[in-house]
Amino acid sequence: MLYAAAAVFTLTTSCDDDDKTTRQVTPSNVVIVKGSEPITSNTTWGSDKIYQLSGRVTVEAGATLTIEAGTIIKAEGGREANASALVIARGAKIMANGTPIEPIIFTSVLDEIEFGETVSPNMDPSFAGLWGGVVILGNATISADAASVQIEGIPPSDANGLYGGTDDADNSGEMSYVSIRHGGTLIGEGNELNGLTLGGVGNGTKIENIEIVSNKDDGLECFGGTVNVSNIIVWGQGDDAFDIDQAYAGTINNFVGVANANSDHALEVDGPEGTYLAGFVMTNGTLIGYNDGGVDGGEYADFRDGAMGAISGLYFANFSEDSDAELDDDATSTNYMNADLVFTNWEFNVDHLTAGNMTVADILKDKSAQGGALSDLSFASVVTSPTVGANLADFSWTWTAQSGKLN
Question: Could you tell me the CA-to-CA distances from 309 to 6, 227, 264, 279, 344 in Å, in that order?
Fold first, then answer.
């Protein structure tokens, strides 16, 4: 349910380091959306208001949430059960279609960004974990011990947290030209929300032109499902830029990751958890690492637990001396040798390095007990300029591009 306030009030929010930040909110421009009252009928959020998420706001089955181009959504702080987030439950839909000129922006209440702005006037990517994130759940196939399971970050008592099913063409709506910023608050011990979580989402759903900035955990994580994602950029995540689990079987095309000092892997890929086996496709990616004088950077990629899929057309740049891409276990190594995990046309730019992992053989490693799967490295090369990767022009609308991170 929506509540429009009547007078100026003071809002105090807990930041990531438990500091208290206080600012005034002008209620004439703010509509508070309470998590205690889920959205159960078709609802539209217009661009003439700022919508303030207060708690875990759920769109329940049968309802569609429409968000107009240019709308700003600001989430309150809070941790664990009190974390603010937007959850699209199975059977519900989100229709959030921004434009390059008027993107839809999800951010924190501490962000002073207003109508018509795409760059925050007071916050930079050092701010992370200030709220939860956006979670979309569907009825498509996942690999798990059951046909449907509970998504991480939502209490087991909340049935709206279930995802998975048998409808691979399931439609959870549309998201385009959407920027999700400063999320990933703690929801349990060692457990934060991703910027955008897709759990069992079907390929009837459209996800394209997405930016995720400064999320404390992963940028995008796909738990099974068949949804296709295109033109997606992750900047300054605290864990992995792109994370794949539970036999995700869609395609991620034209993607960019830009790391910062807190980032871990550009790619983290886990294999199926149950008997259902399926592989994903990732193609045309540009992944920019972080290094401080050649050291202290995150990793290129980690493939583990019997990972399956095909990844092609990757350009990596600016990673550190000890960054590598690994096959972690025997099941993953075997899948690579059996062509259930396929790598094609990878390029590494190491011009900034003077020591460490400067060759393909040093970067790409089979760390399984059996070893030897990566004896043929003809799919990869060291280059000074890319011939593969993402089309960076497609991201000119983003805060990332406007901050010069794609130059």
Answer: 53, 15, 21, 4, 11
d(CA 239, CA 242) in angstroms, rounded, equals: 9
| Segment holding 399, helix H or strand E | helix 399-402
Decide if 213 contacts 192 (C-beta within 8 A).
Answer: no
Q: State pLDDT tens for residues 235-290.
A: 999 999 999 999 999 999 999 999 999 999 999 999 999 889 999 999 999 999 99
Q: What is the pLDDT of residue 156?
A: 83
Place of tokens 């891409």: 325
The two structure tokens encoding residue 247: 């036999």
Tell me the three state secondary structure of residue 171: coil
The answer to whether 82 and 188 are in contact (CB under 8 A) is no
Question: With the C-alpha atoms ordered 383, 384, 386, 389, is the resulting torsion angle positive or negative?
Answer: positive
The answer to whether 75 touches 106, Cβ cutoff 8 Å, is yes
For residues 116 and 315, the model is more confident at 315
Tokens of 289: 């690492």
Which H or E run contains 402?
A: helix 399-402
Q: Which of 325, 339, 315 is nearest to 254 (CA)?
A: 315
Chain segment 8-63, per-residue pLDDT in tens: 334 443 444 444 333 444 456 899 999 999 999 999 999 999 999 999 999 999 99
> Using the 8-state DSSP alphabet, how is residue 164 labeled?
-
- What stretches of 314-381 show up as alpha helix (H) in DSSP? 330-337, 360-363
pLDDT in tens, 206-236: 999 999 999 999 999 999 999 999 999 999 9
